[in-house]
Design a protein that fits this description.
Elements lengths: L4 E4 L15 E4 L19 H7 L22
Antiparallel strand pairs: 1-2
């Protein structure tokens, strides 16, 4: 099973002047996990709605929440 959120632990130098961020994360877009666009994929009902979400297809929408602030549920 894939996850849109990736995590890594960067190198932390003993000479860092600031408190380090021990675990960093980033979000990947959902279209990376679909090999091809299936025919007949449902679309948003109105152009205004599609512009609001930034994509024509609801399956490709991701809000990209910040995992450090509790935006990701169940991971």
């Amino acid at each position: 099973m894939f996850t849109q959120y990736k995590y890594w632990r960067p190198y932390i130098s003993p000479f860092d002047p600031c408190k380090p961020i021990e675990v960093k994360s980033y979000a990947t877009p959902p279209q990376l996990y679909i090999g091809f666009q299936p025919p007949g994929l449902p679309q948003f009902q109105t152009a205004k709605e599609a512009l609001k979400f930034g994509t024509l297809w609801p399956q490709f929408f991701s809000p990209y929440p910040n995992p450090e602030r509790g935006g990701v549920k169940g991971e």
